[in-house]
Amino acid sequence: MVIDTSPIADAKVAALAGQFSRDGFALARGLFSPAEVEEIRALFAKMHAEGVPGHYEPSKPHDGVENPNDPLYQYPRVMMPHRFNARAKQFMLHQGVAAHLRAFFGLEPVATQSMFYFKPPGARGQALHQDQFYLLVEPGTCIAAWTAIDDCDAENGAMYIVPKTNDAPIVCPDTADRGESYTSHFVPVPKGLKPQLVEMKAGDTLFFNGSLIHGSGPNRSKTRFRRSFICHYAGGDVRKISGGYHPLTRLDGTTYEVTPQTSGGPCGEGWKGSLH
Fold first, then answer.
1. Nearest-CA neighbor of 157 among 233, 80, 214, 87?
2. Would the pTM of this model clear 0.85, i.e. be above it?
3. Which carries the bigger pLDDT value, residue 68 or residue 245?
4. How far lies 89's CA from each of 38, 82, 112, 114, 251, in Å?
5. Nearest Cα residue to 211 out of 197, 193, 229
6. Is the peptide bond before 139 cis (omega within 30 degrees of 0)?
7. Residue 266 pLDDT more than 50?
8. DSSP class of residue 91?
9. Residue 93 pLDDT > 60, yes or no?
10. Is the dihedral angle over the CA atoms 201, 180, 266, 250 positive or is it negative?
């Protein structure tokens, strides 16, 4: 892939870095090419059809109740595909994503997690939450790179973010409405702020920091998926992270070892942190 290193491209990244610092998020339009989007879509369709023993998330919702009629039972998300699929690892280390992360962190980033969500028609969304609650990166926080593999809007369950919550404290969540959210955690919106829908085209990447409150609504479409490729990163000076994210990966593909996080975060020492 040819990366645009022109001054205009640099200026675009710099402008997004300014927005990221101010608001806690930035949207990079068309960061993944149509060919890359199609390859990612085909790669995970193949995984869904063939299965990936030992790595494909169990086919049941997070409440532990198996329901074959639940769309998320039929299309479970793929967790950590970079650990067993070389091409997924390459997409996690995408040079365009890396260029933005360097500007946002001010450091060489390291990759901590990869995921793929199918979100088929009828699937529940994910209640508002904060990623740092799960990753417990220290020092600093994580940054998500959320890439749309389908066009997404309110109907098929697009992302909601709460701007200006990038400096919000990490809180112990309330309980979510399980009829709307497949996860049980919910972080309320601070007084005076409100969620903002982020409509995206396939290939767009939404970056947001670990404190930013975000989530998504249910997919109310009858025919449209809302697939997404999601990775999390930390700054290169990271010393601790929740145990489930080990080992980390440098952007040259080599392994990066850090200390498993023992802090319980806002919920106390009993909280271990986990993939979400």
1. 214
2. yes
3. 245
4. 16, 4, 11, 8, 10
5. 193
6. yes
7. yes
8. H
9. yes
10. negative
